[in-house]
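[step 3/7] inverse_fold.run input=structure_tokens len=456
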């Protein structure tokens, strides 16, 4: 084993510049083994849940891994409970969630995540049955206290030495996997069997490529595993995008090339191989942080976005968004784009528009001659790739896609604002943050995604 691989295996915090938070964030290295020992208990508990539908309320590291597991299971035609990951504050999406025969999984490492807190407030008012709730959180958090006070079916207290985006092989990913009917022991076993040395090499190559200007990590994931790009994007972006450095992940289902691209293909055949993929990329990303000389375990600009949202909410009402017409976007992008840039399409829109958004991504890419383009829903990305947009290199061209029409009015019990106000405050707070960091950003009407940049 190489010296670098051995030091990482030994959880050496000196692999990253001091000071760093690594001493309290390296539990992910050994968690597959401890979770493998819990697999039978998780299976038995999941089998005891009578509900046929699961609604997971989480954000960032608490939601993206479970969403990949769910999406891959469905794409492979595996059977299991209906499973929905609710990681949005969009009121139209929230209002459409079917709560009948639902079991609610409330997931937050800190136990104070605003989005999770507000979603729980709504579901509890509508379905105040503690037997239909379970929590996943760190020990001694407000969420753990709530679960105990209300008598939740169960509260899973995760080991606290694992950061959110490295938590998919802990309770945060494997409790949802068990409820979705996925083989938890199989996921852990493939993770334990992953080639550690090879994963280290992937990270070294990625870090060196970024340092040499090939910082657009183009991750090609085809077929039923395409959703893996959603998870690995947030892992790389949030881990490496800081202090003006970073690897810019560009998940894609088709080959893309360019002078600043570092292309990596991801392949798998069986659902349980996701365990190995998760672990391999956690190792690789931590190593890339070592190569770039940054701490891959902190996220300073994520906290900044949360503070910006609260500042907007403290000075209500949220002013109406000043949106550019759809036809203005193509010309603005042409004016702004230069070699080395990438475009981030940020959709503060209802869920269910994935195909339209990815079609728009491809049109923008082609309109700009093959430029790297990423796309994500807000506020989901604020807990993941948002770190890169503000803390990474100033090469992002951000496009906020917002509805012109009025959003649905869905109340938040115990709060003096509703979900429409909350998501508008999150969009405005991030817009202001991007501007303060000197980023190029435009707010565009996104009601008709097909009409943007060369569409119908």
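[step 3/7] decode complete -> sequence:
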């Amino acid at each position: 084993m190489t010296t670098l691989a051995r030091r990482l295996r030994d959880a050496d915090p000196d692999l990253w510049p001091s000071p760093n938070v690594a001493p309290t964030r390296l539990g992910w290295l050994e968690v597959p083994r401890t979770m493998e020992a819990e697999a039978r208990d998780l299976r038995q508990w999941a089998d005891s849940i009578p509900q046929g539908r699961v609604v997971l309320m989480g954000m960032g590291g608490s939601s993206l891994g479970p969403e990949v597991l769910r999406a891959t299971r469905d794409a492979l035609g595996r059977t299991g409970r209906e499973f929905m990951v609710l990681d949005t504050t969009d009121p139209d999406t929230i209002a459409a969630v079917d709560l009948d025969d639902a079991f609610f999984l409330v997931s937050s490492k800190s136990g104070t995540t605003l989005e999770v807190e507000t979603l729980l407030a709504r579901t509890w008012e509508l379905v105040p049955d503690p037997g239909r709730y379970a929590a996943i959180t760190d020990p001694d958090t407000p969420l753990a206290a709530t679960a105990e006070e209300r008598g939740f079916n169960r509260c899973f207290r995760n080991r606290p030495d694992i950061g959110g985006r490295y938590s998919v092989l802990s309770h945060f990913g494997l409790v949802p996997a068990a409820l979705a009917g996925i083989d938890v022991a199989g996921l852990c076993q493939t993770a334990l069997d992953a080639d550690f040395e090879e994963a280290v090499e992937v990270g070294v190559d990625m870090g060196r490529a970024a340092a040499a200007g090939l910082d657009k990590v183009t991750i090609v994931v085809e077929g039923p595993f395409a959703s893996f790009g959603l998870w690995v994007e947030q892992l790389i972006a949030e881990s490496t995008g800081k202090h003006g450095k970073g690897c810019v992940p560009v998940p894609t289902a088709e080959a893309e090339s360019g002078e600043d691209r570092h292309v990596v293909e991801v392949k798998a055949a069986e659902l349980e191989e996701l365990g190995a993929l998760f672990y391999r990329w956690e190792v690789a990303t931590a190593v890339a942080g070592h190569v770039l000389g940054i701490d891959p375990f902190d996220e300073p600009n994520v906290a900044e976005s949360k503070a910006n949202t609260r500042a907007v909410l403290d000075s209500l009402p949220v002013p109406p968004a000043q949106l550019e017409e759809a036809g203005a976007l193509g010309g603005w992008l042409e004016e702004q784009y230069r070699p080395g840039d990438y475009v981030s399409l940020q959709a503060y829109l209802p869920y269910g528009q994935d195909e339209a958004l990815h079609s728009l991504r491809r049109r923008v890419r082609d309109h700009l001659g093959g430029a790297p383009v990423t796309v994500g829903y807000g506020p989901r990305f604020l807990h993941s790739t948002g770190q890169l947009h503000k803390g990474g290199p100033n090469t992002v061209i951000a496009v906020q896609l917002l509805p012109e029409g009025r959003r649905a009015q869905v109340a938040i019990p115990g709060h003096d604002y509703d979900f429409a106000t909350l998501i508008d405050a999150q969009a405005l707070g991030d817009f202001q943050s991007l501007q303060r960091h000197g980023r190029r950003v435009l707010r565009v009407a996104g009601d008709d995604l097909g009409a943007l940049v060369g569409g119908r």
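[step 4/7] annotate
Residues 191-292 form one domain.
The CA atoms of residues 399 and 416 lie 29 Å apart.
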